[in-house]
Amino acid sequence: MKKRSVMKRLAMTMAVLMTAAAASGCGSSSGGGSTTAAPAAPAATEAAGSEAAGGEAKEADTQAAADDWKWERKVTIVCPWGVGGGADGTLRPLQPILEKNLGVPVEIVNVEGAGGANGIDFTYKQPADGYTFVLGTQSHIMLDLQKILPVDFKQEFRPVSKLVHSINIIASSKKAMEGKYTNFDEFVAYAKEHPQELTCGMLTATGADSVSLKQTLAGGLGCGITEVEQYVKIVNYSSGSELSSAMVGGHININITGADEIKGLIESGDIVPLISMSENRMSSFPNVECTGEHDIDSYVGTWRGIFCRKDTPDAAVDSMAAALKTAWESPEYQEFLKNASYLDREGYADAATFQKLIDEEYVTFEDYLKGAGLIK
């Protein structure tokens, strides 16, 4: 099979740049990864010991703060997308477990629209009293960078816990593909010969899904990411259920989605997965080829995590974080994660680790948006 590469290997380039920056900033000290560190000098050893002790003390303080918080009424978790999509699907199996852990009702409120912006706006307008949280993704980072959000997401919100990091797939409507293509190679070949005849549905045209979709199609078409829509039309939908209905009805050809969102439709034969956007094939769909096999670097994937307003009481945040970790580790949620292929990538992360990822993603997506001519 002929190899193809995306014109911009975004993630790989940023990883190299960030590694170089870390090396220049830290001199010859060990930076983690697989690098073998030299024996530490006594002063460094003492510093490491102090840092470890400080970390343990911080964890103890965090747990104490969490124990001090008493949940007294219903907790709301805002989902910035509609019922039936991956965001909503990540929260639903978590809800009953959280209710048990917190001892109070937990309500999932879907505030859809504007690519996830409406949900952030709604959350920001609620009191920062520890009873309102929101699901966030890279899409909010991209909206923030493009100044589309009504508030400064980076400054006004803080992470609580990361829950999942999904692998996206490009799937096709069985009805719409008949007589045109049967796999990814044939899809891009047909798109080249019939520009703008084929359509792709998505929920967030300005988010991470758009990035990985255009990277994948650009790699297959042999064009730039800004030229993809010359071949394939993009159609926006407000909810996952609406998008799935359009796929089943043959109203659009393909969509970008998480495997968990359309697993039932794949099993029924209404939807056919064409390719997964991953380095290796997915555990739940081992017969579906991946972009790694095509030398197409489109591995972004959507992570989803819980956020809250930055001025939310620390004790409430710490208590919610502890409850989320317990819920994530529960047999029930682990079963959901396994069935949805969420365990193929590292999912859970605490607030500190999550914040580091978010900071890196701001750099990564700023570079992408500048390259695409969407921001200056």
Report on the structure:
- The chain has 15 helices and 11 strands.
- By secondary structure, the chain is an alpha/beta fold.
- The strands form 2 sheets. Strands 2-1-3-10-4-11 form a 6-stranded mixed β-sheet, sandwiched between helices. Strands 7-6-8-5-9 form a 5-stranded mixed β-sheet, with helices on both faces.
- Helix 10 links the parallel strand 6 (198-202) and strand 7.
- Residues 1-52 have low confidence and may be disordered.
- This is Tripartite-type tricarboxylate transporter, receptor component TctC.
List the helices and strands and how they pair.
Elements: H1 10-26, H2 42-68, E1 75-79, H3 86-91, H4 95-102, E2 106-110, H5 117-124, E3 132-137, H6 138-145, H7 153-156, E4 157-165, E5 168-173, H8 174-177, H9 184-193, E6 198-202, H10 208-221, E7 232-236, H11 240-248, E8 254-258, H12 259-268, E9 271-276, E10 303-309, H13 314-328, H14 331-339, E11 349-350, H15 351-371
Number of domains: 2
- Average pLDDT, rounded to a whole number, is 84
Our measurement of the CA-to-CA distance between the termini, rounded to an integer number of angstroms, reads: 38 Å
Which structural class is indicated by helix and strand composition?
alpha/beta
Family: Belongs to the UPF0065 (bug) family.
Signal peptide: 1-23
Organism: Enterocloster lavalensis
InterPro entries: BUG, Bug_dom1
